[in-house]
Amino acid sequence: MEYILIADDNEDITDILANYVRREGYEPIVAADGLQAYEAYKKYAPCVVLLDVMMPNMDGFDVCRKIRKDSNVPIILISAKGEDFEKIMGLDIGADDYIVKPFSPSEVMARVRAVLRRMKTVTEVPAATEQQIILGNMRINLDEYTLYIDEKQIKLTKKEIETMWMLASNPNKVFTRDNLLDSLWGYDYYGDSRTVDSHIKRLRAKLEHVEHKDWSIKTIWGVGYKLEVIKA
After folding, report:
1. What is the pTM of this model?
2. Residue 187: DSSP 8-state
3. N or C: which end of the chain has fewer CB within 10 A?
4. How sure is the predictor about 217, in pLDDT bands with cuts at 50, 70 and 90?
5. What gap in Å lies between CA 15 and CA 46, rounded to an integer?
């Protein structure tokens, strides 16, 4: 049996989501605060985590950070606050998606299906073998979700690793913003191309501090992005 963790201090919300989770064929695990959520995550190893942001004892952001220290399980944050900076912060610390209350339970389950589909898609990229890509001085390992440049690990979020994996699996191929949005965030993601732009911007900022003369992320104006391999 696969579990989905639902963490929210509103019992009406957890009851509704639990019913929808059962309909999808999963077993719901319910937590009423952040500490319970983290303990339940460690005990049950759920395939997806639904985290309310504003919870007692430990908020959803902190739970997300703790989970991301040792797991790449899909995490969807849920919040009554829809400000852009909170969404960006949630994505930056490793969340896969961000849903604003009030929401439709059907929408939540569509997002769950999308993140599970993305996990399957990313790990089935045919251009790499053994879940590792070596390109110039860069090494990406998707099993460990790590990226090294000249054997120095670059701290990236889960989504940033997946973005680099997608680009590096297809060097010199141009991906439109919609290509990347669909492949990495899923067809059911309710975002827009600015999500891709903001992730690429943060990814570049983290990579600019290390030397990478053999490759670079290039913007193809009006189209999207590519990982350009520079031949000697």
Report:
1. 0.65
2. T
3. C
4. very high
5. 18
Exposure on the CB side of residue 128, measured as CA atoms within 13 A: 24
- Give tens-digit pLDDT for 117-153: 777 655 554 444 458 888 888 999 988 889 999 888 9
Q: Does domain 3-122 have CATH number 3.40.50.2000?
A: no
Q: What is the pLDDT of residue 192?
A: 62
β-strand pairing of 132-135 with 48-52? unpaired
- Look up residue 130 and give its DSSP letter: T
Euclidean distance between the first and the last CA atom of the chain, given in angstroms as a whole number: 52
Q: How many CA within 13 A on the CB side of residue 18?
A: 14
CATH, domain 125-229, list 1.10.357.140, 1.10.10.10, 1.20.1250.20, 1.20.58.220 = 1.10.10.10
Question: How high is the pLDDT of residue 122?
Answer: 54
Which tokens is 190 given? 């309710």
| Cα–chain center distance at 25 | 23
Distance CA 78, CA 105 (A): 12
Give the sheet arrangement for strand 215-220, strand by strand.
175-176, 224-229, 215-220
In DSSP terms, which residues pair with 141 in a beta bridge? Answer: 132, 146
In angstroms, the Cα distances linking 189 to 90, 97, 231 are 15, 8, 36
Alpha helices in 124-207 (DSSP H): 158-168, 177-180, 193-207
Q: Above pLDDT 70, what percent of the chain?
A: 89
What's residue 127's pLDDT?
45
Residue 44 pLDDT more than 80? yes
